[in-house]
Amino acid sequence: MYTLQATARGTSTELGTFFEKLVAHGEVNSTDVVNITAFYAATQDLQGFRAMLNKYVEKTGLLDNMSRNQAMTVCAKAGAGKLLIELASDQWSRTKDVVTYNLLMKYYSQRCNTAACLQTFCEMRKANVKPSEFSIGIILDSCAQSSNQNKEDLQRMYDLLVKSDLPMNRMNYTTYIKGLVQAGCFDKAAEVFEHMRKTSELSPDLVTYSTMVKGYADKGDIAGGLKWLEQMISDGISADNVVFNYLLQGCSLQACDPLFVDHLVSKLMSLGFTPCTSSISILLKVFVKSCSWSKAFELLQSAANRFGIAPEQRLYEQLALACHKAGKTHWAQQVYNAMNKDLSLRGERIHVSTHRFMRSYCQPSCSAKLK
């Protein structure tokens, strides 16, 4: 209790003096070290922290693994990376256990330092410390989320994990596939996916298939994404609107032929797709991208009959704003008129601010006036 109180209100100098007194009387224990670590982590005082650890080790001996791991957890929560790495040094404890390595890898992963994460994993294996499922998850997440991911790191990870005796679950494989897709390794992703399909306990689920569909859609390969969607449904897994919308979003990356988009929507609906408001919003973006103003307007007008959706006010606002930015004020006016008519028939009140915005969208923009 006294240690906690001193930690809460002391300065580095006061705390150091207090700790020296505890050590001198032989009253310090590992719990005190963890509590005092919280102070140094909050102040990011690496030099003072080292001095404190030196005094403890000289008087009491090396930290036990549990205390070190608790102190590292405190550092991780405080964002004190330098102190966390310092604690992992063999200078302060005889050996590292799986938790110690996991804490280190998690720290590197959160900072997208995949190389350091992989190196720490290799050190753990070299030290004959058996990784846990959490260890595998950390390293896979690190590789999947790294914006600088490259094929060499992914292949190295594959050699370390997939080809080893380590336990890999469905989530681990799915995360690995995500990393491959983000790195553009679609053939390798398909190979790993096929391995999962052949292993009953690893059979791909909705998340795994979604990862493949999204990967292809994100690079504009709608046909490739559609192929995976059809395979998913063929395997008895129902797609949700999130998966269907991935393919629609893929059409917004570049101008798409409106006829192709209509065909895609019909195809998706035949596979069980029921468009929702977010789907309509995406389709508006797709038609705006190709400057297909009449198709975008027609989409709002036909949504109720075609999809069973009464367009929300925000969809009218979305299209009117796009028309305004493109200098198509006559289309913005048509959208505004349609909104007034449609919402009036539905008995919905249009907010005063919405009227104000819509009227402004019907006026030429400054850039349009300059032209």
Write a brief structural summary.
The chain has 371 residues and is an all-alpha fold. It has 22 helices and no strands.
Provide a descriptive summary of the structure in words.
The protein is mostly helical and 371 residues long. Among the domains are: 95 residues; 60 residues, no CATH class. It is 72% helix and 0% strand. It contains 22 helices and no strands. Helix 3 runs parallel beside helix 5, helix 9 packs parallel to helix 11 and helix 15 packs parallel to helix 17. The longest helix is centred in the last third of the chain and has 17 residues. It starts with a helix and ends with a helix. The N terminus is likely disordered.
Strand-helix topology:
Elements: H1 2-9, H2 12-24, H3 30-43, H4 46-60, H5 65-78, H6 81-87, H7 98-110, H8 114-126, H9 133-145, H10 151-160, H11 170-182, H12 186-197, H13 206-218, H14 222-234, H15 241-250, H16 258-270, H17 277-289, H18 293-307, H19 313-325, H20 329-345, H21 352-361, H22 366-370
Helix pairs in contact: 1-3, 2-4, 3-4, 3-5, 5-6, 5-7, 7-8, 7-9, 8-9, 9-11, 11-12, 11-13, 12-13, 13-14, 13-15, 14-15, 15-17, 17-18, 17-19, 18-19, 18-20, 19-20, 19-21
User: Count of helical segments?
Assistant: 22
**Run of helices and strands:** HHHHHHHHHHHHHHHHHHHHHH
Low-confidence region ranges: 1-10
The shape, in one word, is: elongated
Count the E strands.
0
Instruction: Determine the strand fraction and express it as a percent band.
Output: under 5%
> How is the biggest beta sheet arranged?
none
Average pLDDT, all residues: 86
Measured between the Cα atoms of the first and last residue, the distance is 74 Å
Oligomer: single chain
User: What share of the residues lie within helices?
Assistant: over 70%
Radius of gyration: 29 Å
Q: What structural category do the secondary elements indicate?
A: mainly alpha
